[in-house]
Automatic annotation (TrEMBL):
Residues 200-280 form the 3-hydroxyacyl-CoA dehydrogenase C-terminal domain. Residues 17-196 form the 3-hydroxyacyl-CoA dehydrogenase NAD binding domain. It comes from Saccharopolyspora elongata. Belongs to the 3-hydroxyacyl-CoA dehydrogenase family. In the central section; belongs to the 3-hydroxyacyl-CoA dehydrogenase family. This is 3-hydroxyacyl-CoA dehydrogenase. The chain holds residues 314 to 616 of 716 of the full protein.
Length: 303
């Protein structure tokens, strides 16, 4: 059955090569999923060779883990590993028909990535973004062919969670959207079409929910009490453990986007800002001593 709002699938193009921009953890998870499900060449890039090598090594390591669990044959291991390459040179993306970026969550960085890609890929190649919260329309606004830009938002851990938010920007055309849905299906994800609104749907809800847990801690409820309060609901993990999984910096970026869009409804937390600045789980308030550690680790944090 066609997902609600998806264009006619006859418009979808075939994807024979995938490019992934970024070789960090999220990008690595995406490259792994693409090579496993599409079985086409996947090329990854980043700002230096060391990052690229680490990204390729991560993907190879995950392929080995799947083999160790008995989910891939020795043949498949060699085939999939052979399909993954890294390149500093964007020319390697020239024949990619679907490129996804998972770089730093900053509009100008993502716009620059797409502008650079546009010099190499064909005008029909899909430029997808795994942004957690930024506008798809704005991301494509400086391109010659913004109609091929589409939001393709996965959830952590990518290999496990079935949901995929597909986002249509104002200029996204039906062929790009149909291709995105086709690829989402090939990746065995449950695709939903969502509006190009700040943080789309899931992160909008999640940010509100996490924000209230954080505010409760900020107001003095002990960390463990606030974090464990919803245990009887049977959530797969507590809110603060989920925050660790998502990455505090990513969560903070999403929160800042929501705060900018709806300042009255999404607050900012000094503790959260300090936590991200210090980049250590231990500095969140778990007791008096770690509270002072958080404060001393503060980078220009007030209050
Ligand atoms: N990375 C990759 N795979 C992981 C993983 C991780 N961090 N954690 C667990 N897994 C895999 C395991 O390997 C296992 O796979 P297998 O069945 O092939 O062996 C499978 O997940 C189940 O793992 P476990 O049995 O060890 O653990 P659980 O049953 O407790 O499940 C969980 C772990 C899937 C992470 C579950 O706790 C969960 O669903 N948590 C909620 C996650 C969530 O809400 N994510 C959305 C965050 S929002 C987001 O990502 C958007 C972004 O823009 C911010």
């Amino acid at each position: 059955k066609r997902p609600a709002g998806a264009p006619d699938k006859s418009l979808a193009r075939n994807v024979t090569k995938v490019g992934v921009v970024g070789a960090g953890l999220m990008a690595g998870q995406l490259a792994l999923l693409f090579v496993r499900r599409l079985e086409v060449p996947v090329v990854i890039t980043d700002i230096d060779q060391e990052r690229i090598d680490r990204g390729v090594a991560y993907i190879h390591g995950e392929i080995d883990k799947l083999a160790a669990k008995g989910r891939l044959s020795a043949d498949a291991v060699n085939r999939l590993k052979g399909l993954v390459t890294g390149s500093l040179d964007k020319k390697a993306f020239a024949d990619a028909d679907f490129v996804i970026e998972a770089v730093f969550e900053e509009m100008s960085v993502k716009q620059q990535v797409f502008a650079e890609l546009e010099q190499y890929v064909s005008p029909e190649a899909i430029l997808a973004t795994n942004t957690s919260s930024l506008s798809i329309t704005e991301m494509g606004s400086k391109l010659k062919n913004p109609e091929r830009v589409v939001g393709f938002h996965f959830f952590n851990p990518v290999a496990v969670l079935p949901l995929l938010e597909v986002v249509r920007g104002e200029q996204t055309d039906d062929a790009a959207l149909a291709t995105a849905f086709k690829v989402g299906k090939q990746l065995k994800k449950s695709c939903v079409l969502v509006k190009d609104a700040p943080a789309f749907v899931v992160n909008r809800l999640l940010t509100r929910f996490m924000g209230e847990v954080i505010a409760t801690i900020d107001e003095g409820t002990p960390f463990e009490v606030a974090d464990n309060a919803l245990e009887p609901l049977g959530l797969p993990m507590s809110p603060m453990v989920l925050l660790q999984l998502v990455g505090p910096a990513v969560a903070q970026h999403v929160n800042e986007t929501m705060h900018a869009a709806y300042p009255g409804r999404f607050g900012l937390s000094d503790n959260m800002q300090r936590f991200v600045a210090a980049r250590k789980a231990a500095v969140w308030i778990t007791d008096e001593s770690s509270q002072s550690a958080a404060q001393s680790a503060s980078v220009g944090g007030g209050g």
